[in-house]
Fold this sequence. Notes:
Layout: H1 3-22, H2 33-38, E1 48-53, H3 55-63, E2 74-79, H4 85-90, H5 92-95, E3 103-106, H6 110-113, H7 122-138, E4 142-146, H8 162-179, E5 183-185, H9 187-191, H10 211-230
Parallel strand pairs: 1-2, 1-3, 3-4, 4-5
Amino acid sequence: xxxxxxxxxxxxxxxxxxxxxxxxxxxxxxxxxxxxxxxxxxxxxxxxxxxxxxxxxxxxxxxxxxxxxxxxxxxxxxxxxxxxxxxxxxxxxxxxxxxxxxxxxxxxxxxxxxxxxxxxxxxxxxxxxxxxxxxxxxxxxxxxxxxxxxxxxxxxxxxxxxxxxxxxxxxxxxxxxxxxxxxxxxxxxxxxxxxxxxxxxxxxxxxxxxxxxxxxxxxxxxxxxxxxxxxxxx
Length: 234
């Protein structure tokens, strides 16, 4: 096992008790617990696709509910606003694997870059994304790894120059996806402007897509799901 994952694990073990004291439900496991219990078993012939993510995933069904109706896939949103990749990893089994999906689309990393739960470490974020993908693969779930959406600046934490950091993280996510034959879904290329940010025509705050932004993302997601379904599960 490589040194970096061991150090990341050691850091996690040291900091988890402190985080638990500050917030007993740091990963917000309660958010979807009732919905998970009420969710019926997947229908035969209708692949279930769980969308794991942050506020961008969380707001999607509310912003364009029509997209999620009448699809050949059953999309299940499990996004939580403000979450970072370690929080998603902690709830991955409950909010993804236990729902018995055929496919999972993982969109993580923006809030890591925004330092929502601590200083940004690209390798640590990538390790968390890798762990989610490997958990899915080990349980026979096909994996879509989504690029982080472009952002020139974060309105709640200005001055972090996120654009180049997001590009660098996306390059690593793409390389990992190609190495392991996961589907890579490139939202960034479809949405970025000349500053490598999210333009006003797609977002009011430069971070969270409006309906116009989601309308760009939706066919890309459908295409990625179709591609993942054609692949053999391992």
